[in-house]
Amino acid sequence: MHMLYDSESFAVVHIFANAPDASGADAHAQADGPRMPRHGFEIVDKRTGKEVYLDGSWAELFQQQIQAWQRHTPTQEEVEDTLEGYATLAQTPVVVH
Fold first, then answer.
1. What are phi and psi of 48, to 5 degrees?
2. pLDDT tens for each residue of 49-94
3. Could you tell me which of 5, 3, 2 has the C-alpha nearest to residue 81?
Protein backbone atom coordinates (compact mmCIF):
# COMPACT_ATOMS: atom_id res chain seq x y z
CA MET A 1 0.00 0.00 0.00
CA HIS A 2 1.29 3.45 -0.88
CA MET A 3 -0.38 6.77 0.01
CA LEU A 4 -0.40 8.93 -3.11
CA TYR A 5 -2.50 11.89 -2.02
CA ASP A 6 -4.05 13.17 1.19
CA SER A 7 -5.99 16.41 1.62
CA GLU A 8 -8.92 17.63 3.66
CA SER A 9 -11.30 16.30 1.00
CA PHE A 10 -9.66 13.19 -0.49
CA ALA A 11 -7.19 10.40 0.15
CA VAL A 12 -5.76 8.20 -2.60
CA VAL A 13 -3.96 4.95 -1.89
CA HIS A 14 -2.23 2.67 -4.43
CA ILE A 15 -2.88 -0.91 -3.34
CA PHE A 16 -0.75 -3.82 -4.50
CA ALA A 17 -3.23 -6.66 -3.95
CA ASN A 18 -0.98 -9.54 -5.00
CA ALA A 19 2.25 -8.32 -3.44
CA PRO A 20 3.82 -11.00 -1.25
CA ASP A 21 3.92 -10.12 2.41
CA ALA A 22 7.18 -9.83 4.35
CA SER A 23 6.52 -13.06 6.28
CA GLY A 24 6.56 -15.17 3.12
CA ALA A 25 2.99 -16.37 3.74
CA ASP A 26 2.28 -15.85 0.05
CA ALA A 27 5.12 -18.16 -1.03
CA HIS A 28 2.80 -21.17 -1.43
CA ALA A 29 0.51 -19.24 -3.77
CA GLN A 30 3.51 -18.18 -5.86
CA ALA A 31 4.75 -21.78 -6.06
CA ASP A 32 1.45 -22.77 -7.70
CA GLY A 33 2.34 -20.71 -10.75
CA PRO A 34 2.30 -17.17 -11.99
CA ARG A 35 -0.64 -14.96 -11.18
CA MET A 36 -1.88 -11.94 -13.01
CA PRO A 37 -0.66 -8.88 -11.13
CA ARG A 38 -3.60 -7.07 -9.56
CA HIS A 39 -3.39 -3.62 -8.21
CA GLY A 40 -5.76 -0.78 -7.79
CA PHE A 41 -6.43 2.60 -6.32
CA GLU A 42 -8.69 3.42 -3.42
CA ILE A 43 -10.12 6.93 -3.50
CA VAL A 44 -11.76 8.10 -0.29
CA ASP A 45 -14.08 11.09 -0.36
CA LYS A 46 -13.68 12.38 3.18
CA ARG A 47 -16.59 14.79 2.76
CA THR A 48 -19.13 12.01 2.20
CA GLY A 49 -17.35 9.20 4.05
CA LYS A 50 -17.45 6.95 0.96
CA GLU A 51 -14.77 5.21 -1.05
CA VAL A 52 -14.33 3.70 -4.48
CA TYR A 53 -11.79 1.04 -5.46
CA LEU A 54 -10.52 1.26 -9.02
CA ASP A 55 -9.07 -1.86 -10.61
CA GLY A 56 -8.79 -3.28 -14.09
CA SER A 57 -9.36 -0.75 -16.85
CA TRP A 58 -10.42 1.91 -14.33
CA ALA A 59 -7.07 1.54 -12.57
CA GLU A 60 -5.25 1.77 -15.91
CA LEU A 61 -7.06 5.00 -16.74
CA PHE A 62 -6.25 6.42 -13.32
CA GLN A 63 -2.60 5.36 -13.70
CA GLN A 64 -2.49 7.30 -16.98
CA GLN A 65 -3.84 10.34 -15.14
CA ILE A 66 -1.12 10.00 -12.51
CA GLN A 67 1.53 9.80 -15.25
CA ALA A 68 0.11 12.95 -16.84
CA TRP A 69 0.31 14.69 -13.46
CA GLN A 70 3.96 13.63 -13.20
CA ARG A 71 4.72 15.25 -16.57
CA HIS A 72 2.78 18.43 -15.77
CA THR A 73 2.53 19.26 -12.09
CA PRO A 74 -1.15 20.07 -11.49
CA THR A 75 -2.56 22.53 -9.03
CA GLN A 76 -4.38 21.14 -6.00
CA GLU A 77 -7.62 22.38 -7.57
CA GLU A 78 -6.95 20.34 -10.74
CA VAL A 79 -6.25 17.21 -8.69
CA GLU A 80 -9.35 17.73 -6.54
CA ASP A 81 -11.52 18.29 -9.64
CA THR A 82 -10.30 15.01 -11.15
CA LEU A 83 -10.83 13.12 -7.89
CA GLU A 84 -14.31 14.63 -7.63
CA GLY A 85 -15.17 12.93 -10.92
CA TYR A 86 -14.07 9.54 -9.62
CA ALA A 87 -15.78 10.18 -6.28
CA THR A 88 -19.14 10.22 -8.06
CA LEU A 89 -18.61 6.44 -8.42
CA ALA A 90 -18.19 6.01 -4.65
CA GLN A 91 -20.98 3.95 -3.10
CA THR A 92 -19.18 2.10 -0.32
CA PRO A 93 -19.17 3.74 3.12
CA VAL A 94 -15.80 3.90 4.79
CA VAL A 95 -15.82 1.60 7.83
CA VAL A 96 -13.01 1.53 10.35
CA HIS A 97 -12.45 -1.81 12.06
1. -105, -15
2. 999 999 989 999 999 999 999 999 999 999 999 999 998 888 878 8
3. 5
